[in-house]
């Protein structure tokens, strides 16, 4: 099974590219969506312990957590140490399920793929990119987003130019959605025959140890 990492900074158009992949019948694991799920229950006790007062009614209050991190940006690493392992377990479950079905290609949509070292766990990386002005305009259109918050979040992310330089494929999303879709289609066609070793190397469940007492 070929594993593709889909990444890019905030506001670059990852969701648009991911939607096209799904239209093509390709499974896409959405790391952001999984974080939302984890914030709605599974990680609440750990996050409340690390960031007191940021949960409410059994869920993480994302606004309060964001405010806490804006005041203490050095604590992003604490949050990541809680969230990243849980998301990786979700990725593992999805990939194993896809492999069991005999699926040929699965995409992991991970915003911080390079920042978390995730490029070592995929076979190829697609980076979605747009001009800085376009990116900022998109981000400011999001509810609750401010210039200060954008600057804080982008400061934690690898520069777009470096992501592009490390990518196997780059999708330019400055144009219309149809242009993005055309680029996705082209990349998928070019992936035919691409070497796929990441699943066996990193994700495949290890065989159980041999029982020396087992009757042969």
Share of helix, binned? 40-55%
Percentage beta strand: 5-15%
Task: Write the element-wise H/E pattern from the N-terminal end onward.
Answer: EHEHHEEHHEEHHHEHH
- Which homologous superfamily in CATH is the superfamily? P-loop containing nucleotide triphosphate hydrolases
Strand order within the widest beta sheet = 2-5-1-6-7
Task: Provide the gyration radius in Å.
Answer: 19 Å
Which class do the helix and strand fractions yield? alpha/beta
Shape: globular
Separate helix tally: 10
Strand tally is: 7
- Major beta sheet, specifics? 5 strands, parallel
CATH topology: Rossmann fold
Instruction: Look at the structure and give the CATH class.
Output: Alpha Beta
Known CATH architecture: 3-Layer(aba) Sandwich
Mean pLDDT: 92
Helix and strand arrangement:
Layout: E1 2-7, H1 14-23, E2 27-30, H2 31-39, H3 44-50, E3 55-56, E4 59-60, H4 62-71, H5 76-101, E5 105-109, E6 124-129, H6 132-140, H7 147-155, H8 160-166, E7 169-172, H9 177-190, H10 198-203
Helix pairs in contact: 1-9, 2-5
